[in-house]
Amino acid sequence: MSYLKKIILVIDSIFEKFTLVSLVALILVVTTQVMTRKLFNFVFFWSEEVTLLLLAWFAFMAIAIGFREYIHLGIDSFTNLFPKSFNKVLDKIISASIFAFGLYLMIQGWEFTLLTMESTLPATKLPSSITYLAMPITGVMICGYALLQFFNVNTSRHKNMEEGM
Are 37 and 58 in contact (CB under 8 A)? Predict the structure, then answer.
């Protein structure tokens, strides 16, 4: 069991690191784009396309990390009105709904990725499907997190973080 847990943690760490790298790359590309436009009246032909690609990847992967860290939207003031037994059932329903959303991303994202395999992005000449490949990958991660949360496994890796910071 500990071997499986280590493998899952490695996959999760790679996923998180890739998310952070995509954010840093996004910041660097946009900063370069703005600086070259303002200072030299020149823009790299690929910068807007790469920005959109990185933004799509970062946004989808951040969704999965948000579910992992339990920072998705919730209305605690409403659910606190109910007894704990009701909230436990509600938590299971929420986990099942999150799993269904992940499954939707996985299936529809994969179909969309296959659908766009033949076309290429105009500036970078990368396959258009690379933009949409983030959807099924995010779906797999969301399904994994939802399953663990359904069975009361705490998936949060960044504890003691204060909200609003």
Answer: no
Q: How far is CA 46 from CA 21, 23, 121, 125, 129, in A?
A: 19, 17, 10, 10, 17
pLDDT in tens, 56-91: 999 999 999 999 988 877 777 778 888 999 989 998
- Give me the mean pLDDT over the 3-30 stretch: 92
pLDDT in tens, 138-155: 999 999 999 999 998 888
Closest among 146, 59, 61 to 102, alpha carbons compared? 146
CB-based contacts of 17-24 (< 8 A; 24+ apart in sequence): 18/61, 19/58, 19/61, 19/62, 19/65, 22/54, 22/57, 22/58, 22/61, 23/54, 23/58
Neighbouring C-alpha atoms within 13 Å toward the C-beta of 99: 13
Q: If you ran DSSP here, which 8-state letter would residue 162 be given? A: P
Q: For 86, what's the count of Cα atoms within 13 Å in the CB-facing half-sphere?
A: 6
Tokens found for residue 142: 């969301």
Strand partners, 127: 120
Q: Which amino acid, 31?
A: T
Q: What six digits make up the tokens of 19? A: 């998310």
